[in-house]
Design a protein that fits this description.
Elements: E1 5-9, H1 15-24, E2 28-32, H2 36-55, H3 61-69, E3 71-74, E4 85-88, H4 94-107, E5 113-116, H5 123-130, E6 136-141, E7 150-155, H6 161-173, E8 177-182, H7 189-205, H8 211-222, H9 228-235, H10 237-250, H11 261-268, E9 282-284, E10 287-289
Parallel strand pairs: 1-2, 1-4, 2-3, 4-5, 5-6, 7-8
Antiparallel strand pairs: 6-7, 9-10
Helix pairs in contact: 1-2, 4-5, 7-9
The chain binds acetoacetyl-coenzyme A (CAA) and nicotinamide-adenine-dinucleotide (NAD).
Length: 290
């Protein structure tokens, strides 16, 4: 495959995982963050995750060290100019993403493939902002990237067929099963998942059941690995709200996209979920407590 050097932009919840699986798969990876503290935190997460995989004998220490050796961090966007593929995983804000793509379009070599990990925004709008719509796809990974096996590969009307094939090949190379989806709100998974999360919140707002009881119900009644509230904590309440707000603005008459008040209140209080130590649950590190 033509992809050898991969740039990842954003080293948060998703970006660190994408950078890690790409480095584990043998790609040279450079990950860009906006500030040093966030970069250090993200690379620290990679170190911790690799150590966990070694501890569980899913990876040898030598392979973990080699993956670390292929991964570097930077604050300079210019260091990504010669990448064959750039996977963007910055915060879910369309204006900020479009500004970034406009910069990338000016900066990167002509062959670079641009891929957004967005949960909800139109890939075509980012492609247009980059000035290279034919080289733009969605590469939507799932959280936690190290463990979840799916990647949605999203094509727009403008995406070049060769670019789509390369993006699918990259997904397979990092150990995921790719599915191809059109550029519609939420693609496949989030179009089904996010309205379910919002409907769970409305159920609790009405007083029909408690947060832990809804989670227990969906785990034991449907065999889901996590209930909707623990999953929202896992995804991030800010990210979930941004997704719903974006869709609600676009489809104001569709009741399933209305952001629930309980979600807006928690985000306003800074309760973003596992990453801030509290969301619908309180968290002690990686584990939910009462
Ligand atoms: N790196 C390395 N190891 C990790 C890890 C990581 N990032 N995350 C967890 N592990 C380890 C755990 O520490 C654990 O190790 P121990 O057994 O030593 O404690 C092991 O992997 C298994 O973890 P769990 O015990 O938590 O096992 P589990 O069977 O519950 O699996 C899970 C965890 C895969 C996350 C599972 O709970 C699950 O599938 N949950 C649902 C996740 C989901 O739906 N994700 C999609 C979210 S939506 C999205 O991503 C799209 C969007 O745009 C919003
Ligand atoms: P996050 O808040 O954990 O991480 C975002 C990171 O981007 C932060 O560390 C921030 O400092 C950094 N950042 C912001 N602007 C930047 C810039 N211009 N350059 C470099 N870094 C920048 O968010 P996340 O949960 O990792 O989400 C990232 C993207 O992935 C979003 O588009 C989100 O919708 C999508 N996504 C999230 C999940 C999830 O479960 N959280 C799952 C799939 C996809």
């Amino acid at each position: 495959m033509a992809i050898k050097k991969v740039g990842v932009i954003g080293c948060g919840l998703m970006g660190h995982g994408i950078a890690q699986v790409a480095a584990q798969a043998g790609f040279t990876v450079v990950v860009r963050e906006a500030e040093q503290g966030a970069l250090d935190k993200g690379l620290g997460r990679v170190t911790k995750s690799l150590a966990k995989l070694v501890e569980k004998e899913k990876l040898t220490q030598a392979d973990a060290d080699a993956a670390k050796g292929r991964l570097s961090g930077t604050l300079e966007l210019g260091d990504l100019a010669d990448c064959d593929l750039i996977v963007e995983a910055i915060i879910e804000d369309l204006d900020i993403k479009k500004t970034l793509y406009a910069e990338l379009g000016k900066l990167c070599k002509a062959e670079t493939i641009f891929a957004s990990n967005t949960s909800s925004f139109p890939i075509r709008e980012m492609g247009a902002a980059s000035g290279r719509p034919e080289r733009m796809v969605g590469l939507h990974f799932f959280n936690p990237v190290q463990l979840m096996k799916l990647v949605e590969v999203v094509r727009t009307d403008a995406t070049d067929a060769g670019v789509l094939a390369e993006a699918r090949g990259f997904g397979e190379a990092v150990g995921k099963v790719p599915i191809t989806a059109n550029d519609t709100p939420g693609f496949v998974v989030n179009r089904l998942l996010v309205p379910y999360m919002a409907e769970s919140m409305r159920l609790v707002e009405r007083g029909d059941a408690s947060v832990p009881d809804v989670d227990t119900a969906m785990k034991l009644g449907c065999g889901y690995p996590m209930g909707p509230f623990i999953l929202t904590d896992y995804v991030g309440l800010d990210t979930t709200l941004s997704i719903l707000e974006g869709w609600h603005a676009e489809y104001p008459n569709d009741p399933i996209f209305v952001p629930p008040q309980i979600l807006k209140d928690k985000v306003a209080e800074g309760k973003m979920g596992r990453k801030t130590g509290e969301g619908f649950y309180k968290w002690d590190g990686d584990k939910p407590v009462a």
